[in-house]
Design a protein that fits this description.
The complex is a heterodimer. Chain A has 14 helices and five strands. Chain A is mainly alpha-helical. Chain A has a domain of 245 residues. Chain A has a three-stranded mixed β-sheet. In chain A, strands 4-5 form a two-stranded antiparallel sheet. The radius of gyration of chain A is 22 Å and the shape is globular. Classes of the chains: A mainly alpha, B mainly alpha. The interface between A and B is large, with 53 and 50 residues.
Chain lengths: 389, 357
Amino acid sequence: MSTPAAKRLSELLEHDQRDRVLAAALILSAAILPFFFETGSGFIDDAVTALAYVVMALGLNIVVGFAGLLDLGYVAFFAIGAYTMGWLGSGFAYSANGGKGIHVGVTGPISQLPGIHLNFLLIVVGAVITTAIAGAVIGLPTLRLRGDYIAIVTLAFGEIIGRVATNGDDIHFGSYTLTAGSQGITPVDKIQLPGLSEFTSLDLRPWYWTALGMVVVVLFVNFRLRDSRLGRAWIAIREDEVAAASMGVPLVRTKLLAYATGAAFGGISGAFLGSYLNTVNADQFQFGFSIFVLGMIILGGLGSIWGVVLGAIALSFINTRLIPDVLNSVPSKIGLNFDLTQLSFGIFGFLLVIMMVLRPQGLLPERRRRIELTEGVGTGEEQLFEARV
Amino acid sequence: MEAAAVRAKADLSLRERAYGLTRTFLSRYGLILVLLILPVVYGIQDLNHDGNLTRLATNLKDGISNGAIWALVALGYTLVYGIIELINFAHGDVFMIGSFVSLGFFGTVGLTLTTGTFGLIGGLAITLIVAGIACGALNAMIERVAYRPLRNAPKLAPLITAVGFSFILQNIGLLWLGGQFQPVPDLINSQHDLVKVGGVAIQNDDVLAVATTIPLLLLLGAFVSRSRIGKAMRATAQDPEAARLMGINVDTTVSLTFLIGGFLAGAAGLIYALYQTNVWFFQGFRAGLIAFTAAVMGGIGNLRGAVLGGLIIGCVQQISDNRIGSKWTEAIVFAYLILIMVFRPRGLIGEETREAG
């Protein structure tokens, strides 16, 4: 322990341990939080949504934050995940199996209903598979494109999926339609986990803990991925694609894996939200939602995992609490007559601009990103137009 | 034995050559072929069904007048992309504001349904200038606030602020005229048949769109190629550093580019309001994406390309509205966007950006 290197190592380990203790304390306090609120209260309702958004934001963070591929069509994966839940966990396919329905791993009254009813865990697996494939398919055409074109292509894909969801009640497969359009697939099965009774819409604590469990799993996967060979390859591509390729990073596979992984998280969250909100409705899948999630990771700090968690929780509560409850009365107080909740996306847009101009590294920046943005390339006047790749 | 090997080799080279030829052919004409699918298929269908091509011709006529509007918006994208390589995502919403300003200004200038022809033309000309200047100033302001501070940041940063501003403008529009479609007084009696050419009725709105767009395009073309500012713009687009060394004020030039792009968007907003006879706050998002598709289709950075792309996208959109159903139009336009981006990102005429050389 006397050499400087050994001392530095022990410091690093201590630092690492402190981080772990902090994380454990944070998760523990989040786990006991619902005991301080009534189980059907609005706060828990908002908290469940916030946690689902955390999962989604962490997924988008892999694509945008780690790999540096701006994805403006992330809502597509929310949609695909939610529709997987809608198809495989509701009475939507009412004529399946001659009207008797298909049931796998479900108990209670659902197991008598017509339609396809699979266990939630199976549906999550299904959602992961479909969204990962969709992510790779959407990623494929963007591989050779430059950064801003990637953004537009993903946006176009997101919009196409949105259109298909809206008009899907016109697309027939035999006696089935693809989606229920803006009418929505409803009701959707409540989550059934092995060993627990079926969740209800009155008792929100189990939903909260399920969402928290998802967040913990996704967080763990995120940290492990970031420090893995793949994660380092993503960051290398973000920093300099040409350099990464010449160091032997396989661009196609690495990028596709980023799209697929990011999409899969969106799918998990989408399936959960489909069940929790009890409807899968085409109106949920608007372009604005993609920007909402993008706003979360920009607020928190692109590429910074804890920052994204913070950003997602903050923006989600701004959306569900701050704007409708606190700020909504402000315009009428100063003599203006409009509903502030209508303008929430304008507020998010404003937030994007302000954050990007004043604090581009986010609230809790990742170290590497901060260096890049503040001390790194392109601060000189002569590099005005050069360093924007 | 040897002969077989030689023949196999010849076969292989023949196959390779055929493959190579197909590839060149596809990359050169593939996009044009894809573009021709819709009109050709429906042309044949019309011939079988009605025995003439009137319906298709009407679609194309509507497409061209509608496309003239997209061309004006697309020019704004292409000018800005040419000079600072940024997709000005808020441009479509600037166009929307142009429609709103025009609608508001009709009342101010006293244009009503009873105004006479000369009064109408004069009033519309004034409205055009007002809407254009308002949008130009707005666009230049956005550049100053949201893009200029980020010129040294990673390329995605200004794109994100552009998206942010797009939402801000949409919500301004929402506050201004509410969430519903707002009717615009049909000042020009837009559905009135002016002349009939071979069974195709040319209406007042078609004339308005084309007759406003063409002079603006000619003016823009002359401005960019002849005037000092136009030369400065082209120089900055080619190499900003060298332009700066030659004594060109790059910041002013960029601002002016945004001003001109915004002016065209404002003009397009006025025409759109009269053409569609309704406006709403969300029109800009859709128009922006359509116009961007047009700009990429022609080759981004290329002014003629933007006009050509606008006209083509206008036709695609009309055919799709009329035949497939307007609820699928957006999906079809976006599918075109993806196809172009993937198979021919440099567009029909060829892009003119620094990256393209």
